[in-house]
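Hello Y.,

Per our agreement to keep a running log of every chain we model this quarter, I'm adding this entry. I've kept the format consistent with earlier entries: sequence first, then predicted structure.
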Amino acid sequence: MRRKIRNSLNLKVFLWVFTALTVCSMLIYCIVMAVLPKQYQFTEDKQLDANAEIFVSELRTMRYDDGIKAIYNFCIRNNSAAVLLAGNEMLHFGEIASDEQTLATSSVGINVRFLDRDVNYMLVISSVMRAADRISGLLLRLLPVIFLIIIVLSVLSALICSKIIVTPIARISQISKRMASLDMTWRCNVKSSDEIGILASNLNTMAVRLQTAMQESESANKQLAADVEKFQALEEQRRHFFAAVSHELKTPLTILKGQLENMILGYGDYQNHETYLPEALETVETIGQLVQEIISITKMESMDLQNTLQEVSLSESVCHTIESILPLARDKEIQIHQELGTDLTLSVHPTLWSKALSNIIGNAIRHSPCGAHVLISLQASETESVFTVENTGVSIPDEELEHLFIPFYRADKSRSKTTGGSGLGLYIVKTILDLHGFPYSIKNSQNGIVFSIHLKGSRI
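Predicted structure for the entry above:
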């Protein structure tokens, strides 16, 4: 029970208020019992003295018989007793029991002389504590009833006080537990203008601010996690890029070194320099082309396009690209179809955009079988424009599509120069389109492979 009281504010407030009200009420009642009869008797005595003086002055104007009647009436009115003395003559007025004689609180002795007698009388008027004793007895008899009323009123008052004071504090205590668990979705519904109401209002304000701060922190953490993940992906991609560059350069350099060493030492057919020098030159050109593409990628990644953008016609840029790559299409007997329908004006870097188109359309021709078709189309609407290049007769496993934009990745695992280039073509395309903010995708279709670009431009 003691532990329950110690852990419950409601019980503590109830017991404190109940005890305080009960003790204070009983103490006040006891003080009233002790003081009220004495104060009443003191007041009566003073009133008796004043009345006696007035009454004696009246007696001096009365005859003896009338004075005796007046003394009786005075004792009755003032709840007192009187004795009229004259020599051996003694008259008593008022009934005073023998045990009440000791209860006399005050006596007044006054010389009285009546009109019809020459004798001087001594009138002694005494007050008794009969009324005061009755008041004390009445208060004592009422004590059990008063005590019961005090208990009932104290219980009700303690319940009301504990409810008014403890209920909002209990709500705030429950809210503090939710705050400890970082739950800020609560609101403290305490409607008052006192200190508890101010505390509840401050807690609500703090909850709103903490919730906002937590949401901002969570959003910042998510953004940070996304940035870290992106950075890790870029770092992984960069490591893969340099590893692939090393591998791609290692093979032609090894071939070139072997050719040159054999020609210098004059081994076998390598004595004929005129035959192997062109092959060595071709290898050097391959290395130079690869290095040039790597340098171009590095420049593009750090390029700021804002001051280099120009208005370019999509239709014209596609036509120029097709003209430059048309000899390769004719060699493979590949037909190129255009279905642009309308034209768009694009804000792009002209050189980079031409490079991207050349790589996309060139890849479509290089990786298509002889006699295939390449379809270049534009689907324009009020909300977006989608530029697509589709080459027929070929497909790529779906699990490899997402890897096509990785530097030096080729779906042809043999990495033969007859079936593909350096493996940087689509990575260059990706870099250019990312710089321009053009979303892109590559996927298999019913007829082949479709490369799509979502363009931002104005229709002509």
